[in-house]
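Protocol step 4 of 5: obtain the predicted structure for the target chain.
Materials: sequence only (see below). No template structures provided, no constraints applied. The aim of this step is simply to have a reference model before the mutagenesis design in step 5. Sequence pasted as it appears in the construct record:
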Amino acid sequence: MITRTRFSRIFQGLLLHLAAVSLIGYFAFHAYTGNYGLNARKGYEADIERLTRIRDDLRTEREDLNRHLALLRPQSIDPDTVEELARRDLGFALPNDLVKLSPGR
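Step 4 output (structure tokens):
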């Protein structure tokens, strides 16, 4: 009878340790491969870098547009900008300008 008691205690201890190891293994596996795990973090970091580059490009484009818009404000009209727009949109030219007509026009 004593051997069965030792055997059951050893078996229960072994079973408890096996259950603990399997539980730890389960959580470790999902910590590495889950939706918010270490592998997913690499993808998130790549997305962050890509979106940061896009954001910086958009900021640069916005600053360029704001600079161009500031030249067209009525309080500070830049004569060169007005002349450029008139030549491009309205087809104006000065008398001493050399004009090259394209075949499509």
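Step 4 remarks: The helical segments are 2-33, 38-71, 79-90. Residues 29 and 64 are 49 Å apart (CA to CA).
Proceed to step 5.
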